[in-house]
Amino acid sequence: MAEMVAERTRPRAVRPAGTLAGGLPCGRRVPKGRVRWYLLKVREGSEAATCAKLLRAVPRDVLIDCFPLRKERWFKRAGVWELQHVTAYRGYAFAVSADPAELSKAISKLSVQAELAGADGRAWMPLAPDAQEWFERCMDEGHVLRSSTAVIVDGVL
Fold this sequence. Notes:
The protein is an alpha+beta fold. The protein has a single domain, classed as Alpha-Beta Plaits. The protein has 4 helices and 7 strands, in the order αβαββββαβαβ. The strands form 2 sheets. Strands 2-5-1-6 form a 4-stranded antiparallel beta sheet, with helices on one face. Strands 4-3-7 form a 3-stranded mixed beta sheet, with no helix packed on it. It is elongated and about 55 Å long. The N terminus is likely disordered.
């Protein structure tokens, strides 16, 4: 019996203060009208499809852009190195908006499995400005974080 009580009272994993889901740093709430990136929780494996549906259904003045961040990964198969594009944050996508309240309202009216991560009532937390700037600098126009330059010598990366 004591084991069951201890199991129920064990503290759950708590996200560190100042971070969004996925360990991304969150910024402070901003005044309406400033374009920021917001993290969307979506069904894992359907990040790109969900973003495409949202971009078709939500007006562009509310949702400027929506995308899953992808990264390049080197993978060796049968002795041959190849470059793959994989989702950087599985189960999450980024929504670019100047009005998170209207975005949340528009998403809630749809049958798409998506919600603003970190939304606590009316507290929608954007991505931290320095993290947003870093992603903007490092990703290409296809929302892919490119791999650093590598040299493969005799099959060794």
